[in-house]
Specification:
Shape of chain A: globular
Number of helices of chain B: 3
Largest sheet of chain A: 7 strands, antiparallel
Strand content of chain B: under 5%
Shape of chain B: elongated
Largest sheet of chain B: none
Distance between the termini of chain B: 34 Å
Helix content of chain B: 55-70%
Oligomer: heterodimer
Order of helices and strands of chain B: HHH
Largest interface: A-B, 72 and 47 residues
């Protein structure tokens, strides 16, 4: 029987950072003040006609694009989960405020390496905003950004991945084939061995521990669900395809063929290889589901939630969890089994072009699992955040015998591992010293600060936002841009519904031939003005 | 693995480049790599440890997000 075609595993991300004001204390924290001061420094085009000025004369960060004009941030903030969204004409991503966190949204890419480069590019844009904001503040009230996933006080925030998946596979996971859901959850739970950022202590009523692998593990309380802020599910079922509407005149739409996996499970990662594996292996695993090659009981955990808490605390990978088959495996043993299946899948070329660099990702995955099997912390530290952080913290305790796991200074070191300030964050000196593996080029990071990916609609989004007078852009979203042209007399909507369309090869000629924005929009917009 | 003694063994392993449970490699280069790794962060750690941790931890409070 012919297997179904696998869609390219296009990937985006929406990542909240921790932001707060030094020396400030209030029962609800200082995130509100910090996030707004940061977003003011990021230049871009407002997503929904929220035109508010960048006060204080700052030059804005390096997101590219034009300065926008208008009033102050909207007085009535109807939705605290989506405030002040601005799209970046540099790389096609966006930034906004979600529940008082600065949230960084990466442009859609096809290749996991591009994702890592875009991620670090967005961090540099945020760092630039941090510098600009702090330059206008009193030194004792400076803002800090931590690229982590929990505050150590019982609050977690997300580093979500968003991956394209065929609607049929999406429905297999959530509606038809429970074994696919369990298979995916089992992969995710065991993958913390290379995706965890690591943290001191426990939260959310979970059993006490000195140090654990995953920052998020304590916050997952159920297997599946659409919610993200309470009773968090390992596998999130929020169905938000961002490919246009469901029904248009009764005809089939892209939503009938495409869906988005909203992956809320993972920690923020700074280590380049960890970030590459987090996305790249997930792309392969989703491709396997889409090809109908998932669901074997020899890979399914009997209780994924219990295994998650167990394995997050198992720094030596010695504690087994029970599978549906009755076997008992450690996290690394289960990962080795997933990798073996994935390698067979890739060898038969069933990934097709869906996962660029699949072989390299599989090799890196296998090599990382070997290091984990050897429990070789010094070999893991250059590529896995939790191992680097644990090495740093153990080194600090060794050098400062008064420190122990319960010392407030240990928790501070834990947090400051991920500080975005290059003079303060503990990750960065290791990076600068070449002690962190970098499977992507420095130039690719620099490029994504100012340029969009070429293979997805992010290219056309960025090009349109560069070319248009910001006053003519009425609204921007991931799958459409609405313009008000001819002095406001004509409204046209460019529908970027197909996330795999509108790449450079498809639309660059339109932008090259000297056409006016009105001509370009008219060419891209379908049908009469709307 | 969570006792101070065990921790010191592992810190020493990183310093000398001795792989945790086996593995191999050139001991000299591994030792140098381990020492380099620790040196890279020493100054940053010293700087962090000179900060007021209680004040810092009070300020880190976030809203739950997502």
């Amino acid at each position: 029987m012919k297997r179904p075609t696998v869609l390219p595993k296009l990937c985006g991300a929406d990542v909240e950072v921790a932001n707060f004001v030094d020396g400030a204390w209030s029962p609800s924290g200082s995130g509100r003040e910090a996030s707004r001061a940061l977003l003011r420094e990021i230049r871009g085009i407002p997503g929904r006609n929220e035109r508010w000025t960048r006060t204080g004369g700052g030059n804005g960060s390096e997101g590219g694009g034009v300065r926008v004009r208008g009033g102050e941030p909207p007085a009535a903030e109807d939705d605290p989960r989506d405030i002040g969204r601005v799209f970046l004409s540099g790389n096609g991503g966006c930034a906004y405020i979600d529940l008082d966190h600065l949230e960084l949204c990466l442009p859609e890419v096809l290749d996991a390496r591009e994702h890592v480069a875009a991620w670090h590019a967005m961090l540099r844009i945020a760092r630039s905003a941090l510098r600009s904001a702090n330059a206008r503040r009193e030194p004792e009230r400076k803002i800090r950004i931590l690229v982590n996933s929990s505050d150590g006080l019982g609050h977690s925030y997300g580093a979500h991945l968003d991956l394209l998946v065929a609607r049929r596979a999406y429905e297999d996971i959530f509606d038809r084939r429970m074994q696919y859901l369990l298979w995916l959850a089992s992969y995710m739970v065991s993958s913390i061995v290379f995706t965890g950022q690591g943290k001191v202590g426990s939260e959310n009523g979970a059993p006490a521990t000195d140090f654990q692998i995953s920052q998020r593990a304590d916050f997952f309380e159920c297997l599946v669900g659409p919610q993200t802020t309470y009773r968090r599910p390992i596998v999130n079922s929020r169905d938000e395809a961002l490919v246009g509407g469901w029904i248009r005149g009764g005809a089939l739409t892209l939503r009938d063929f495409m869906a988005r996996m909203h992956v809320i499970f993972y920690d923020s990662t700074l280590a380049y290889t960890a970030a590459l594996l987090k996305v790249g292996v997930y792309q392969i695993v989703l491709a396997m589901i889409e090809a109908g090659l998932a669901g074997g009981t020899d890979l399914i955990l009997e209780d994924p939630l219990a295994a998650l808490r167990l394995w997050s605390r198992d720094l030596e990978f010695r504690r087994p969890a029970r599978l549906l088959s009755g076997e008992r495996l450690t996290a690394v043993e289960l990962q080795l089994r997933f990798r073996e299946n994935a390698a067979r899948f890739a060898e038969r070329d069933e990934c097709g072009g869906a996962v660029p660099g699949a072989k390299e990702i599989l090799d890196l995955w296998g090599e990382t699992l070997e290091r984990l099997e050897r429990r070789d912390l010094s070999a893991l530290a250059p590529r896995v955040d939790w191992a680097l952080k644990l090495s740093i913290l153990r080194g600090a305790m060794d050098a400062h015998p008064k420190l122990d796991w319960r010392s407030p200074k240990m928790k501070m070191l834990d947090h400051l591992y991920s500080s975005l300030d290059p003079d303060e964050g503990l990750f960065w000196p290791y990076d600068r010293a070449g002690r962190v593996e970098k499977p992507i080029s420095e130039s690719s990071i620099e490029r994504f600060m100012h340029e969009p990916p070429c293979g997805t609609r992010a290219f056309t989004r960025a090009m349109l936002l560069r070319r248009a007078d910001p006053e003519t852009v009425e609204s921007v979203d991931w799958d459409s841009i609405r313009f008000r042209l001819s002095d406001g007399a004509v409204r046209r909507t460019v529908r970027l519904w197909n996330p795999l369309g509108f790449g450079r090869s498809a639309t660059e000629p339109l932008f090259r031939n000297g056409s006016s924005i009105e001509e370009i929009v008219r060419n891209l917009a379908e049908g009469p003005p709307v | 693995m969570e006792t101070r003694e065990k921790r010191r063994e592992e810190a020493a392993a990183i310093r000398t480049g001795t792989p945790g449970d086996g593995g191999g490699g050139d001991l000299g280069s591994l030792r140098e790599a381990g020492a380099h790794l620790l040196r890279a962060g020493d100054e940053a750690i010293r700087k962090v440890l000179s900060m007021d941790s209680e004040k810092f931890l009070e300020a880190t409070r976030q809203e739950g997000g997502e």
